[in-house]
Each structure stands twice: as structure tokens, then as C-alpha cells.
Amino acid sequence: MGGNFGIGFVGCGFITREAHVPSVEYLPGVRVAAIQNRTRGTAETLAARCRSEDLGDPTVYGEGDIAALVADEDVDGLWITSPNFTRVDVVEAAVDAIADGAELRGIAMEKPVARNLREARRIVDRIEDVDLPHAYLENWPHEPEIQQLRDLLWERGRDAGRPYLARSQAEHAGPHSAWFWDGKRQGGGALTDMLCHALAGNHVLLADPARTDGGLDPVSISADTETLKWAREEYAAELREEYGVDYETAPADDYARATIRYESDAGGPLISEATGSWCYVGAGVRRSIELLGPEYSGQVVTDGESSSVFVSDALCNGDGWAEKQTATSGRMPIPGKRVVDGGYVAENRNAVDAFERGENGRLDLHDGLEVLRLCMAAYRAAETGEDIDPRTADLRSYTPPPARG
Fold first, then answer.
1. Dihedral sign for Cα atoms in the order 226, 228, 232, 236
2. Pairwise CA distance, residues 88 & 119, whole Å
3. Rounded to an integer, what distance in angstroms lies between the CA atom of residue 361 and that of residue 345?
4. Which residues form the Gfo/Idh/MocA-like oxidoreductase N-terminal domain (predicted)?
5. What residues are paired with 384 via a beta bridge?
6. Phi, psi dihedrals of residue 235, rounded to the nearest 5°
7. Backbone angles phi, psi at 369, to 5 degrees
8. Burial tier of 315 (Cβ tally within 10 Å: 0-12, 13-18, 19+)
9. How far is Cα 376 from Cα 155, in angstroms, rounded to an integer?
10. CA 200 to CA 205: how far, in whole Å?
């Protein structure tokens, strides 16, 4: 849509700097209007980059300035990309500002919505109390290759029968921010970090695109979580020194697996398998996504072998160029236009267009709430060693073990 839509970002972490802000280059009629961060200097740096790359002339706000950002007349939509433990406070301040007369056209929130269902329910209720459109920023379903996989297989394979198995695997060497390693502040470990992507992606692949509800009903969840690498003495010492977290006495999971059994309208089983870890040692992120049906299958693969270069130690200067790259010499991946290929342009275009129409995004916070419910059910299944029925399990007050401290 054509307009001049100003985004106000709350948070200047990796996902904002490397995905959302760069995506604005591909969004005609959209600009970065404001940036708020608890550390003002970080926001100033990102704002200067926006100006130099002609992405906008954002006003900078520091700690405690959420209300001022929301009241900024140049801000049309609020993009909340701040750490998980800040989400409720950010939404409370934003909604209070709207109640006091500030105007927004919508709020978009990076995955996950919150650390647990109590917080997520509070966030959704408060935003809907002021009748504000919202969007859930989960990039996997918006990725062009995943979207094409879904469209082609459902279109060509429908007569043979709906797809019945979606599998997703995603792993890398670990997060890049201290709070991500802290179970209390993050809300969990690799399960809430990695499997929220995979479970959302699998759900979209298995959901019937011809139906608004997708025709999916999750009936059973089994899961496992482990700490395989980072509680070992040498790695725990590394985390303590670099991030100030104690994985020897308070570890979070660095490996997780979840299997969700759905039932189709006809009563047949549909399976979503998701695995993820922070244990992979390689060039960037390793990922595979599959969809299988009665007479068809499809796969999307992202790994360090797809496109790469080799750089010797003699030329290495310690700088990487790919997400989650854990080395600076040897064979290195060549990332394409990651903000396009990774779905960030599409998800932000969708949110902006929806807000300009006064509607929720293709994925809204209710979708995010459902993904978080599956994550909480998976944590409980892993903790109890029993399958969980998400239709009947009371997860409203559940806190995953890593978040209990």
C-alpha cells in the first residue's frame, strides 16, 4: 500500500539491527520513525545507520521513554523486539499512553509473545482493550521458499490427500545476548528459542490454506529437553565469563524435541516433529524443513554447504558475516538477501498493510499465544515424561524449569 508509514522500534538487539531495520529498504512507503532502547547509546548508533542508509530519520528514546515514543506523531506502528522479560512492561506503558490520547495504527511483536502464558494473556488482553490491530512477527511462515513449498504441495497434492507429516530441525551454536542464556529472563532455553519457530512453521505447513482455522486440532504432545553441551565445565566457564550466567547450577536446555499429534477433520493423524539445539558447531545456522503427503514431499534446507567461500587463517581478521557464524576462517557461508529470503520483508510488509487497513496481520498475537501454549505443553511433557493433551492441560500458571531458577 502506498502511504508513509513510520515504524517505532522498541529494542535494538540482533533481530532489530540485522533483520527488521534492513527490511525497510524493501518496503516502499515505510520508514524508521523512532527507536527506543534501554541503553540510549545503542539506539543512537542504530539511528545514525538508518540515516546513512536512507531508511528514515528516527527520533531516539532511552530507558523509560516508551510513552513518549508511542506519542510521537511520526510513529504509526510499534514494533516490539525487546528482550522477553521486558514485554509486559513495554505493552503496559504503550497501552497506558494510548489511553491517555496517543494514537497508533497497530502493534507488532517479535516471537515469542512472552515468557509464559500468564504474561502473554496479559499482553493480548491489554492490546485488545484499546481495540488495536496486532501482528505476530514469526518469519518462518513468511519465507518465500517455505510459502512456495506449502502452496505447491497443497495445490498439486490435495486430490491425493492432505499432508500428514511436517518435520523441522533448526540448530546453531548458541545465542548472541546474555539474557538469552538466562532461563529466568528468557523464559526457557533452546525449546522456547528454537522450537517456537519450528512449531509455528510446521503448523502453517499442515494447516489447510482453504480454511481460516486450518483444520488442525492438537491432541497430544510429547517432548524431551536436555543440556548436552553448555553445562560441561569448560563451556560453563565460558558462559560465566562472557555472559555472567551459571550453567553448572542453573542450566537451561540446549537441546529440545517435540512431537505434536493433530487430528484432521476426518479423524486421521497428522504429525508435527520439531527439534532444535544450541549445540551445533558449523558455519552459521543449520536448518531443514520437510512436508510429506500421500504421493508427494518437499524440503527446504539451509546450511553452510549451499553457497560458501574459503578464507585461510592468514586472511582472517576476526569478523564474521553470517548469522550465528562461529568461526572466521575456513569455509564460510555466503548469505543472500537474508531479510528477503528469511521472510522479514514479507512479514513486515504484511503487518504494515494490515495495520493500514485497520486489521490484524496474517499471523496475529492469538497465533503467537497458541505457539507459546504448545511450547509450555512441550516443557511440561519433557518435565513429567508423559504425553500432554493441550486441550485439557491447565498451563495458565505453568513456568518451565529453566525459568524457575
1. negative
2. 6
3. 14
4. 5-128
5. none
6. -80, -35
7. -65, -40
8. exposed
9. 33
10. 9
Give the residue among 404, 81, 402, 84 at the shortest CA–CA distance from 255.
402
pLDDT at position 313 is: 53
pLDDT at 332: 56
How many angstroms separate the CA atoms of 304 and 308, rounded?
7
**CA distance linking residue 361 with residue 238, whole number of Å:** 41
Q: How far apart are CA 393 and CA 389, in angstroms?
A: 6
What span, in angstroms and rounded, lies between the C-alpha atoms of 335 and 76? 32
DSSP characters over 209-261: TTSTTTT-EEEEEEEEEE--STTSHHHHHHHHHHH---TTTS---SEEEEEEE
Phi, psi dihedral angles at 254 (to 5 degrees): -110, 5
- The answer to whether 13 and 82 have CB atoms below 8 angstroms apart is yes
| pLDDT of 90 strictly over 90 | yes
Cα distances from 354 to residues 136, 192, 357, 364, in angstroms, run 12, 27, 5, 10
Sketch out the chain's domains with CATH numbers.
5-137 (3.40.50.720), 140-341+371-384 (3.30.360.10)
Per-residue pLDDT at 321: 46
Place of cell 481495540: 131
Q: For residue 132, which of 347, 345, 354 has the smallest C-alpha distance?
A: 354
Q: Does the CA dihedral 71-72-77-78 come out positive or negative? A: negative
Residue 121 confidence class, pLDDT cut points 50, 70, 90:
very high
Residues 369 and 116: their CA atoms lie apart, in Å, by: 9
